[in-house]
Amino acid sequence: MALRVVEWSTGTVGRHAIAGIDARPELELVGVWVSNPDKVGMDAGELADLGRDLGVVATNDRDALIALEPDCIVHTAMVDDRIFEALEDLIFFLESGINVVSSGPVLLQFPKGVVPDDLVERVQAAGVKGNASLHVNGIDPGFANDVLPLAMTSLSQRIDQVRCYEIADYSTYYQPVVMSDIFGFGKSLDETPMLFTPGVLSMAWGSVVRQIAAGLGLTLDEPLEEKVERYAAEEDISTVSCDIATGTMAAVRFQVIGTVDGVERVVLDHITRTHPAQRPDWPTPNSGDGCYRIEITGEPMMTVDFSHHGEHGDHNVSGMIVTAMRLVNAVEAVVAAEPGLVTALELPLITGRGLVPTPAVASV
Questions:
Q1: Residue 72 domain boundaries
Q2: Statement to judge: residues 170 and 259 lie in one domain
Q3: Is residue 353 part of a domain?
Q4: pLDDT for 307-340, tens place per residue?
Q5: What average pLDDT does range 44-54 have in this prediction?
Q6: Start-to-end Cα distance in the chain
Q7: Does residue 194 form part of some domain?
Q8: What are the 2,4-diaminopentanoate dehydrogenase C-terminal domain coordinates in residue numbering (predicted)?
Q9: 298 and 150, same structural domain?
Q10: Residue 361: pLDDT band by 50, 70, 90 thresholds?
Q11: Rounded to the nearest 5 degrees, what angle is found at the Cα of 201, between the Cα atoms of 197 and 202?
Q12: Alpha-carbon dihedral 233, 239, 243, 245, rounded to 10 degrees
């Protein structure tokens, strides 16, 4: 019997999640939530650009969707500018007895040491009350810096350091709020955008560092260290999210560092450009517009570059797809998990089972 699923939002990630839910044979899309009133009444297939109707009409009526009693909500709503409201939404879903896979808030990827214990306890208690589970993941934070590096460490004889990179060109990444308000692209270097306020990076990506450390059995020094280096545009640049004038922020490298006895052991390292020619002295992808890179120093020395691009689009399009599908493909495992918050360390191997096309049968 198929698991009944509601997709929560139909934006840059949600539209791909709808397509993914439709593709998986063990999932049935029964509802879609939208924040934009203009989308109310539209068919899910149209919202996902599938070229066909799915027979599921979008609504902004939360109670009507909860009344459907779905097995799981795939929650892909934008939460970066409404973290606490999103947390309350997730707690409500759990208390209502609905399992959730969500792309955010990313601090719940592995919240121990990242958010106050009482908040984690609230989420856990909500799951127990509703006999439901919550898993927060995606690609980054997510697979590229939890499952992938930890799987690589299984090949190690000695580990001196695990370093997880995102090296990307964000010029085609359409998220104006994230780009301008949160990262500060196109803003004066005299301004400190929200992301680089002391402590925020450790909240946003600290879960990555702490989960890898937990997987390796490390006790980290406190607090985590943060490093930020910003670069000013040498000429005017236009991106899909914002215009960047000469002299304003055009690229940034930031790190969240976990040390043990003062030695850097786990490092999250992000290099974000808006033009490939910027800061050639920073790490660059071996090919294409970007990659995730895992470097494990020790014995042996290991490096993996993981890159992706859309079948009909660039790496920012496929970035939305892999984020959506890491969640969709985990639905079955999360529904089967113990109640409460579930991290990548607790889940079994997640695969794309059921997604290989079946050859069409020729008509006689």
A1: 3-137+330-341
A2: yes
A3: no
A4: 988 887 666 788 899 999 999 999 999 999 999 9
A5: 97
A6: 31
A7: yes
A8: 145-350
A9: yes
A10: low
A11: 120
A12: 10
CA distance 201 to 351: 30
Report the 10 Å Cβ neighbour count for 216.
16
Same-domain check for residues 116 and 257: no
Is this model's pTM higher than 0.90 or not?
yes
The alpha helices in the chain, defined as continuous H runs, are 14-23, 44-47, 62-67, 83-95, 117-130, 147-153, 176, 200-204, 206-216, 315-328, 331-336
pLDDT band at 364 (very low <50, low <70, confident <90, very high): very low
- In terms of domains, do 294 and 150 share one? yes
Same domain, 127 and 272: no
pLDDT of amino acid 111: 95
Average pLDDT, the chain: 95
Dig out the tokens for 354 from the structure.
């059921």
Tokens of 7: 């997709």
Q: Quick one: tokens of 120? A: 């984690």
Look at residue 361 and tell me if it is in a domain: no
Tell me: do 78 and 16 sit in the same domain.
yes
- Alpha-carbon Rg for the chain, nearest whole angstrom, is 21
CATH code of the domain containing 94: 3.40.50.720
167 and 232, same domain (yes or no): yes
Could you report the per-residue pLDDT of 10-39, keeping only the tens digit for each? 999 999 999 999 999 999 999 999 999 999
* Phi and psi torsions of 149, nearest 5°: -65, -35
